[in-house]
Each structure stands twice: as C-alpha cells, then as structure tokens.
Amino acid sequence: MPDRYVERVLNGDKEAFRFIIRECKDDAYNLAISILKEEYAAKEAVQRAFIKAYEGLDKFRGEAAFSTWFHRIVVNESYQMMRSRKPDRNHQLKESEISNSDKNKTEQKIDADHKEFVVRKALGQLSSNESLALKLFYLHDYSIHEICDITGWSDSNAKVILHRARKSMKAQLLQIYDFKKEEL
C-alpha cells in the first residue's frame, strides 16, 4: 500500500510520508529487534532507516515493492548499528519485558501469551541472521528471492541460513520445554 504514496511524498506531501511511517513502523521494528535484540537499539535503527528512506526516496525505482526496498534499509541499518556497538551478551528477553497476563483473563489468553513468550525467548537465543531469516520468511511471507533482495545474501546462503534457523529454533524450543518439565 505505501507504494502509491511514494510519488506523493516526492511531490512534497508530508502527510503521505507520515502514512508510510504508520504503515511500516511495526514491521520495521520487528526486523530490527530480530537483529539487534534490544528495544532501544531497534527503535533507533528504525528511526535512522526512515530518515535514510526519506532522504533517498528519489532513488526508489519501483522495481520491487516499497516494503522490500525499505526493509533492506532497515536490515542494513540494524547490521551497521550491531557492528558499531559493543557486543552485548545479555540480550535475552526478560519476563518483565513481556506483558503479564491479568489474573482475570481466560486460560486461552494465558496460553497464547505463554506461547508468544516462548517464541520470543527462543528467537532471542538465535543468531541475528537466523532470527531475521525466520521473521522474513514466516512472518512477512517473503520468498527466498525477496529475502536475498532485502539482506544481500545469495540464494544458497539464504536457504542455508533458513534451514539452520529452523533447526536452531527447534533446539531452542525443545530446550525451553525440557527446562520447564524439570521445574515441575
């Protein structure tokens, strides 16, 4: 949908770019957090990506969807930030960062919250490339070709990373659930 607003932005319509930001910010944040593993850093990467997109919008050729072009900027900006900062070994999601279920909520809601927590925790344990590959492929429904456009990976590299990501995710989920069984 943002594709049709690009021309309006280029013609000076600032409201059109605000619309693009509203439409793209959540997906951009999810991609950045999968790489950076920190809320503040992900928000900063997304801000920088929007600035770069705005400044470089005249370079958007429309050969791919705007979202693909913009996601590539987000991924590049996230990796740039990751390279420029000190490694953070303590990037696991804390339970306090995940919204707690209200005691009055249904059992179904608690189960959904638990699943989301477990998936986020498992994704947080994966490498940045693996987490990114899973999110692009499964959450954003990008094809391998589109993932290559966004990340700059070769076709075979994207397939290998996605394969390893699936195996790593499975191992993380098994580890989390085995740990839960030992607690009982």
Tell me what the structure shows.
- With 184 residues, the protein is mainly alpha-helical.
- Helix content is 73%, strand content 0%.
- It starts with a helix and ends with a helix.
> What does the average pLDDT come to?
82
SSE pattern: HHHHHHHH
Would you report the number of β strands? 0
Helical amount among residues, as a percent range?
A: over 70%
Structural class: mainly alpha
What is the distance, rounded to the nearest whole angstrom, between the alpha carbons of the first and last residues?
48 Å
> What fraction of residues sit in β-strands?
under 5%
- Uncertain segments of ≥5 residues (pLDDT<50)? 88-105
Major β-sheet, in short? none
The count of helical stretches stands at: 8
Shape: globular
The radius of gyration over CA amounts to 18 Å
